[in-house]
Design a protein that fits this description.
seven-stranded mixed β-sheet; FAS1 domain; about 30% helix; alpha+beta; 3 domains; 14 helices; elongated
């Protein structure tokens, strides 16, 4: 009988391939486990550091821990330490996170997050939009970073930087940041110290803290206030609250108007003296100017109760003459007022209501009279014509009624009709109403009133 010979090499090869297969399968299993277990998101990094344990508890309380663990998004988180949260609880007069509502806590936490990853060397001094919802859809609350001092909102110091995560970066801060009102922003930014001082002295700090209202504030920078006070020949200490209040109110509107919604025209302010208007102009490159002399230099600082745009000059309410001079559609009217020597009269205290003809209205008059322009009309003729356009008092459109109205030309009365729009003497139409100045109001008309 033959015996089978043992093939050692064949058996060895079988064992080799079997072990290789098992090893590859185990490696694949290990790779799958690594993908599931070895994450390093913002939430993971915070949870691994005992100094952020209260922050992690807060994130879990409102369900933001999962959001900051999203591997498909990138974040920058200014992370308050435990000591920062302890200070906050004392500041709010509460015992713990459970005493803070989820809505409030969510707003606070999101106020510390940017929707982009920024290392410390990528952060410049200026404003940043957080993920915390602002007072209008699509606009998030802003905070101000001063990198020269490593400080945020003049409140929180950056004490550690560039703690990397897979989906962003953490910078540790020593105080919890709280969403800020318009007044808070003025106080927090060193470029607005003069404005903040003026608001405080005018007694308007509480008004601009009002969370039941929504404002747009055109905020003069410090250099603007310095130039304004220099022109007046006074210092801030020389102005009383009654002097400052109308100035501050004239820089504010009772609406939320972001840069994207700014339009040219005349817009009412919070000024209580006849609800005075700001004139807004937009140039061909999108630059915005107020009252023909103050440029908007920064936009869309979003506060809890409104929005701030920085400007380079303090604006003051114009007289009706100033309004006419600032509008190219009134250049012929201004020429007539100058020739008639009525500038000082119409720049006086008043108040006056002026029905102001446009250039097109004057050109139609010139064609009717067969003259080339103002130069062909005498001073006396112009005085008679112009005074027929002026009524004593500040008569806004809502206060007009059907009937006769006396003018400053004693021989001319105006027949006012408000049945379908405002018309004068049957054929003259008011095409723009209520352009308010500090000494009266202008209504724009499409024909010259002839006595």
């Amino acid at each position: 009988m033959k015996t089978k010979r043992f093939n050692f090499w064949a058996v060895l090869m079988v064992l080799f391939f079997s072990l290789s297969f098992v090893s590859c399968s185990e490696d694949d299993d290990d790779d799958d486990n690594v993908g599931e277990m070895m994450t390093n998101t913002i939430t993971d990094v915070a949870a691994s550091d005992a100094n952020f344990s209260i922050l992690v508890d807060a994130l879990k309380k409102v369900g933001l821990d999962d959001d900051l663990a999203d591997a498909n998004s990138m974040f920058t988180v200014f992370a308050p330490t435990n000591a920062a949260f302890a200070d906050l609880l004392e500041e709010l007069g509460v015992d713990g996170l459970d005493d803070i509502s989820n809505d409030v806590l969510t707003s606070i936490l999101l106020y510390h997050v940017l929707p982009v990853s920024k290392m410390a060397n990528q952060i410049e001094t200026g404003y940043y939009s957080s993920l915390s919802t602002g007072p209008a859809d699509g606009y998030s609350l802003s905070f101000y970073v001063d990198m020269t001092m490593a400080k945020i909102n003049n409140r929180s110091m950056i004490v550690q930087t560039d703690v990397k995560a897979d989906n962003g970066v953490i910078h540790a801060i020593d105080k919890v940041m709280l969403p800020m009102s318009i007044t808070d922003h003025a106080v927090a930014n060193p470029a607005f110290t003069s404005l903040a001082a003026a608001v405080a002295k005018a007694g308007l700090a509480d008004a601009l803290d009002d969370e039941t209202a929504t404002y747009t504030v055109f905020a003069p920078v410090n250099d603007a206030f310095i130039a304004f006070l220099s022109d007046l020949g006074v210092g801030l200490d020389d102005l009383a609250a009654d002097d400052l209040s109308p100035i501050i109110q004239y820089h504010a509107m009772n609406a939320f108007v972001p840069a994207a919604d700014v339009a040219a025209g005349y817009f009412p302010t919070l000024s209580t003296a006849f609800e005075q208007n700001i004139k807004v102009s937009i140039d061909t490159e999108g630059g915005v100017m107020l009252n023909n002399n103050s440029n908007v230099v920064a936009t869309d600082v979003v506060a809890t109760n409104g929005i701030i745009h920085a400007i380079d000059k303090v604006i003051t309410p114009p007289t009706i003459v100033d309004i006419a001079m600032a509008n190219s559609d009134f250049s012929i009217l201004v020429e007539a007022v100058v020739k008639a020597e009525l500038v000082d009269v119409l720049s006086g205290d008043g108040p006056f209501t002026v029905f102001a003809p446009t250039n097109a209205a004057f050109e139609a008059l010139f064609a009717t009279l067969e003259v080339s322009g103002i130069a062909d009309l005498s001073k006396d003729d112009l005085i008679s014509i112009l005074l027929a356009h002026v009524v004593s008092g500040n008569a806004v459109s809502s206060g007009l009624s059907n009937g006769s109205v006396n003018t400053l030309n004693s021989e001319k009365t105006l027949e006012i009709s408000i049945d379908s729009g405002v018309t004068i003497d049957g054929t003259i139409n008011v095409i723009l109403a209520d352009v308010q100045g500090k000494n009266g109001v202008i209504h724009v008309i499409d024909k010259v009133i002839v006595p």
